[in-house]
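Progress note, project year one: complex with iron/sulfur cluster.
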Amino acid sequence: MFRISRFISALDSAIHTRAASPVRATNTSAACAAVANMAFATSASSSADASHQQPVPCSTATPTPSAIAPAIRLAQAPVVIWNLIRRCNLHCSHCYSASTDKDFPGELNYEQVCAVMDDLHQFGVRALILSGGEPLLRPDIYELARYAKALGMYIGLSSNGTLIDEQNIDQIADFGFDYVGISLDGLQARHDRIRGQEGAYAASLQGLRLCRDRQLKVGLRFTLTQENAIDLPGLLAVMDKEQIDRFYLSHLNFAGRGLSNRALASHHAVTRLAMEQLFITCMSYQQAGNPKEFTSGNNDADGVFFLHWVRRHYPEHAAKTLALLRQWGGNSSGLGVANIDNRGNVHPDTMWWHYSLGNVLQRPFSEIWSDKQEPLLAGLRQRPRPVQGRCATCFYLDICNGNTRTRAEKSTGNVWAEDPGCYLNDQEIQA
Ligand code: SF4
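Model obtained:
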């Protein structure tokens, strides 16, 4: 996950300590409109029509992991994304969990989830993202949220938003979710088509508004694909108009229906335009004195691309940006991020459902996560990772950390192959 706004904020601070910005924007809407006119028209003509998370609180407890993976000590427990239910009322073309509107057997019951939460808490986990399927379809979702809050956890809710209405918004607000992320994958017609349900866009937007009006922290989540890139400017305008403070762009990863539909992955040129658009929009809000959070996920080459963007527009601040990006360190699957699926299987992140590290009904999460014999975890935690191809020779491997390993594995059969989702050209991965 690449927190664009964190780096933009640092960049803006640095600019103001030196000189006025050459592209300072004073009117956010005007800046957004200008950005909206960027070359997305080109993607339209070629289109065949792919953790929101709060800052992760540092654990005050000191976890005592038994594992010391090669070159990496588990100094901090991960953020855990937990798919509590696989059932979903929608049927999205890029869904990594291939969810649909039916019951899936073998899901953890209330007592089992609470027992796992106890173990997570003892291990030092302080942030849970409750996801699905659609987590609001789980009848005990509020009780589970209450339990986690009582442990002192930060709780995010990742929802499609269509089930948030006047009847349950008070409950959602009262149970103290720290953040609600709602997905919009395009403007109305495209979103409804991608999500497989007419009226889904209107229902999701209504859910977003209800959360916002109850002062819940709410963000808009968007999975960029070749099909919906043309709607990105429009969604950023919706964000502005609806006064939503967060925007998360996920690149398409190759898992679930995202694997079957990988041809939808946005072309590299489209991805570059989208990322530049986010950088400029984020900077515009920052410089207008109205900062908003922008984050991207599932493509850690974003950090390197950002560095090149800074070099082009603010060359005097590139060295500081480079240092900050090295601190960030790129992809953190298997270390800073963990996933538990609806049946209790533990994965390095949500895209690894085809590979289980162990099951929490048979072995505590704390043991599974601390297992130094687990080969995939050991490789993911190695610095540098044992990546191959252009990732192995990339000058910025220490920033990106080899990007997303599932995309590499699903494309080549080799988990350490170069990530085909890298949209940087050969020159951009050299010193
Ligand atoms: S070549 Fe590999 S390591 Fe370098 S930026 Fe691209 S994906 Fe990341």
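Residues 73-266+331-381 form a domain with the TIM Barrel fold (CATH 3.20.20.70).
Residues 268-287 form the longest helix (20 residues).
No further modelling is planned for this target in the current period.
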